[in-house]
Amino acid sequence: MRLTDFWNRMRRHFGEAYAESWAKDYVIAGLGGRTVEQALAEGVAAKQIWQAVCQEVDVDSRLR
After folding, report:
1. What is any Pfam family matched here (predicted)?
2. How many CB atoms lie under 10 A from the CB of residue 56?
3. Helix/strand/coil for 28
4. What residues have CB less than 8 Å from 16, skipping those under 6 apart?
5. pLDDT-based confidence at 61, cuts 50/70/90?
6. Do residues 9 and 62 lie in contact, with contact meaning Cβ atoms separated by under 8 Å?
C-alpha cells in the first residue's frame, strides 16, 4: 500500500481534520504501543499500520 493511499483511507474514515490528529495521538497496541506517526517514522509498512488501525476501530469494509 502506498503512503498516499494510506492517508486517503485515514481521511475518509476519520475526516480531513481528525485523521492527522488521531495518527499523532492515539496509541495502538497492535503497533507495539506506538502511534501511527511513530510507526511510520520507524519504517513500519503502511499496509501493516492500516491493518492495525482497522483492528483498533470499526473501519467501513469498503476501506479495508
Report:
1. DUF3046
2. 15
3. strand
4. none
5. confident
6. no
Write down the mean pLDDT value for the chain.
Answer: 95
Q: Using an 8 Å Cβ cutoff, are 53 and 7 in contact?
A: no
- Do the beta carbons of residue 50 and residue 6 sit within 8 Å? yes
- Distance (Å) of CA 26 to CA 9, 11, 33, 57, 62: 16, 15, 9, 11, 23
Global pTM reads 0.91
DSSP three-state, residue 62: coil
Q: How many CA atoms lie within 13 A of 59 on its CB side?
A: 21
Here the cell at position 37 is 506517526
Instruction: Estimate to the nearest angstrom the gap between the alpha carbon of 58 and the chain centroid.
Output: 12
